[in-house]
Amino acid sequence: MIECGLYIHIPFCEKRCAYCSFFSSIIDETVKNKYIEEILNEITLLGKKNKNLKIKTIYIGGGTPSLLTLYDMELIFDKINSFFILDNPEITIEINPNSSIDIEKYPSFGINRISIGIQTLNDVFLKKLGRLHSAELGLATLEKAAKYFNNVSVDLIIGIDKSQSPEKDAERIVPYIQHLSAYMLTVEDGTKLQKDIAERKIFVADDDETINQYEALLNKLAKYGINRYETSNFCKEGFESKHNSSYWNLTPYLGIGAGAHSYFNGERYFNVANLEKYINGNHSGNDLQISERKKSIFEDKFEYVMLRLRTVKGINYKYYKEKFGTEFLSDYNIGIKKAEEYLLFSENNVSILPKYFLVQNEIIRSVLNL
Ligand code: SF4
Prior knowledge:
- This protein has 2 domains: about 1-245, Aldolase class I (TIM Barrel, Alpha-Beta Barrel); about 310-365, no CATH class.
- Helix 1 runs parallel beside helix 2 and helix 13 (about 335-340) packs antiparallel against helix 14 (about 360-365).
- The longest helix is centred in the N-terminal third of the chain and has 21 residues, at about 30-50.
- The chain starts with a strand and ends with a helix.
- The chain has 14 helices and 17 strands.
- About 40% of the residues lie in helices and about 25% in strands.
- By secondary structure, the chain is an alpha/beta fold.
- It has helices at about 30-50, 70-85, 125-130, 135-150, 165-175, 190-200, 205-225, 240-250, 275-280, 295-310, 315-325, 330, 335-340, 360-365, and strands at about 1-10, 10-15, 25, 55-60, 85-95, 115-120, 150-160, 180-185, 225-230, 235, 255, 260-265, 265-270, 290-295, 315, 345, 350.
- The structure holds iron/sulfur cluster.
- Iron/sulfur cluster (SF4) binds near residues 16, 20 and 22.
């Protein structure tokens, strides 16, 4: 049996946020229903083709998965249960506060982890981001989620404004959570945010201000026993996201839905990020994904090192040898010498020294000898 994750992409939102460059579009009931039908087809086809999988994690992401009806969810989970063997999996769903009405029913589908897009608890900043919910609704959703789940994660965005204090938001959030992801606001091409900044209608924090906000958040969370385990991810002990960790460990996962990526049998591929094509059956279940290539072992090692050095535990020598058959310290000896002063070596692992975490891109480039 092969241990595997499933990712299901729900590319629908009520409104586009000002900063968003993800693949999603405004929800239309007819299109959504056709999309769900094709999701069920893709699950069926993949399940029939891969009978030797043990599903360890399921992640329903978007978009806004909480826009699905309970009937949609029932159809999806019935199909997954009919075609895959579930091995006590971590099952996560992303939700938005303004579509959180059904969350108390989610545990009946086996969902045991909820990730809430709170972003900030400041109404002015929420408006700046183009979010639909208020800070009050964000907190109420969090309180409700904590009643029904003992694994609650929150997304925050930092760098929205130079006066932002995410550590103050953290104080109000920590009673309800086990996990927090903090992302630095990035200004993506073609977004409303980019246009508003170019027209000097709004201003966001600069790099130094954003780094200070990150450090303040990191220190505040640590006081509550919520520690960093990856650059953007923090949790109480034992609550690391198993699904995201599987990406960093290069364990296989199947992506279902338009634009979803997969890593399976040593191959990486993704479904076309186009609703119409997806609904017409252009996807991995029909072997019609648009990109497929076998990675060389060199590329896999490279990717593994890059992802693992973003984690606090870093690279475990034994795991690396089991995975690739060679020694990490020999494979990257030139780069390791170059980056030595920024690295923390222990008997079994090497990682980036905590004080250099925010300049990790340069250090990772050195280790990879780029
Ligand atoms: S809710 Fe999420 S996916 Fe949808 S537009 Fe906003 S940021 Fe993008």
